[in-house]
Amino acid sequence: MKFIYKTLLKQNILHEYFLTRPDGSSVFELPQQNDRLNFLAAEYSLDKESINADLRFIFPPSEEKSFENAGLKIIPSYSGFRIVIRVYEETLADQTKVFRPAFTLPPDLNITVLAVKIGNSPELYTNGKLRKPFNSAYLFGNNGEAGTKQFPYLSATIPAVDPLRTYDEGELTSDGATVSEFFIDAGVGNWRAIDGTDFAGEKDRNLLPARFTYFLPASPILSQLKIELKDADGNILRTTEAENSELAARKVSLDFTGIVDDAQTYQLVATGDNGFQDFYLLHFNTTLMNEHPWAVFRFKTHPSQTTYRLIDDEGLIIRRQSPDGSWLPEPNFEVPFKSRFVYWRFLNSRSKELNLTAELGNYFTKEGAALVTKLARPLSRDYFFLKKQNPTDELYVPNPTSYELKSDEKGRTVYEIRVPESELFPVVV
Questions:
Q1: pLDDT confidence band for 147 (50 / 70 / 90)
Q2: 236 and 260 share a domain?
Q3: Which end of the chain is more exposed for a tag (fewer CB within 10 A), N or C?
Q4: Which residues 6+ apart lie within 8 Å of 108 measured at CB?
């Protein structure tokens, strides 16, 4: 019997930083998956760089041999990866060509893939909180790791706005129909509607080792803090009272070794004085986290949502060829990422005062010796334009060369860009 390899699944990572074109259009403007796949194919044909420049995809070393023995292989693809499986071909009575795995995959098998950093850290350009509560990894899967999902996305549903929360610039909320992004203008928080849906975020960054550090937010000042680890049903498994030295340092060491396992979802609840409350849904896997992944992907062959299945009820992979020669494709999953949403602050390279010309006045406000963009904008690799506050025109300006984030006196997140004196950026004389 002849064995061959066929694609079991594809995983695309749609990152705004790489998938925004010079005219400002991005893959997120396309609501249909086929159109997004065509967008990726077009970028690939132009030899455009993707997030694969900064990530490699591997099986966990502890599981690599068992996956290979099951006939599984990872193949990098443009902006993601695919998993292929060793199969043999069968022909059904209606002449449909189908493919059966050469080795039976247990229904409880977690096919695990690690996304490991190899170049620039995606943290530099990926949207996220400036002060993260944990050094955790993203966790994506097709088996309800973050509740019910909307095919083809593996990321959790974006939450609705919480009026009691303090938001960082770039954080996302959704009312079910529109995704909105938070930004600060003149010290005041605002929301703007954006294209796309089901973006990954802090809600997905929930994989930790059993021993980790919980970083407290900058405020409020606390004199008491209780941290409870609960199971999915809310039963308390451990209570930790933070010490005074930990409260002063704004970080608490936690160790749940022997209490947590990698098959459950847990609640972490922190309560303190001055009305402080914090809550997270977490997963734990020390073995995987020891590999320092940026993200972990876990795939079940028979997940609870049938649209996410890899193997059908007859034990066949989803990909097959109809009698007319057309192909039913394998599941093609997606995880969309926003890039950082920041203001640009221009300073003269010799510490002189920049002059706000009539042309630049459409795009910048003058603040002391600096010029600051009127609009915050998402960072992208190839999009070099600035837009007017009422976007009708565009202007080329130098893009950031350093991705060191700063917060200014108005609470905005900014990149500082130093420019020489020029016709575009004259100085006050």
A1: low
A2: yes
A3: N
A4: 300
Q: How far is CA 82 from CA 5, 36, 168, 182, 198, in A?
A: 12, 17, 34, 34, 21
Domain assignment of residue 323, yes or no: yes
Q: With respect to residue 90, please indicate whether it lies within any of the assigned structural domains.
A: yes
Let me know whether 7 and 125 are in one domain: yes
Query: Which H or E element spans position 287?
Result: helix 286-289
User: Could you tell me the residue range of the domain that residue 377 belongs to?
Assistant: 341-419
Q: How far apart are CA 280 and CA 204, in angstroms?
A: 10
The model's pLDDT over 401-414, given as tens digits with 9 standing for 90+, comes to 777 778 777 777 88
What is the rounded CA–CA span in Å between residue 225 and residue 154? 34
Q: Which residues share a beta bridge with 202? A: none
368: closest CA among 400, 409, 403? 409
Asked if pLDDT for residue 316 goes beyond 80, the answer is: yes
| 359 and 297 belong to one structural domain | no
Sequence-distant (≥ 6) Cβ neighbours of residue 23 within 8 angstroms: none
Compute the average pLDDT of residues 55-62. 96
Residue 298: is its pLDDT beyond 70? yes
Instruction: Classify 342 as helix, strand or coil.
Output: strand
Whether 421 contacts 369, CB under 8 Å: no
Counting the structural domains of the chain, the total is 3
Q: How many CA atoms lie within 13 A of 56 on its CB side?
A: 7
* Confidence (pLDDT) at 120: 73
The pLDDT value given to residue 251:
95
- Residue 119 binned pLDDT confidence (cut-offs 50, 70, 90): confident
User: What's this model's pTM, rounded to 2 decimal places?
Assistant: 0.90
Tell me whether residue 152 is in a domain: no
Q: How many CB atoms lie within 10 A of CB 112?
A: 21
Report DSSP letters for 226-244, one per residue. EEEEE-TT--EEEEEEPPH
Considering the domain architecture, whether residues 115 and 10 belong to the same structural domain is answered as yes
What gap in Å lies between CA 62 and CA 165, rounded to an integer? 40
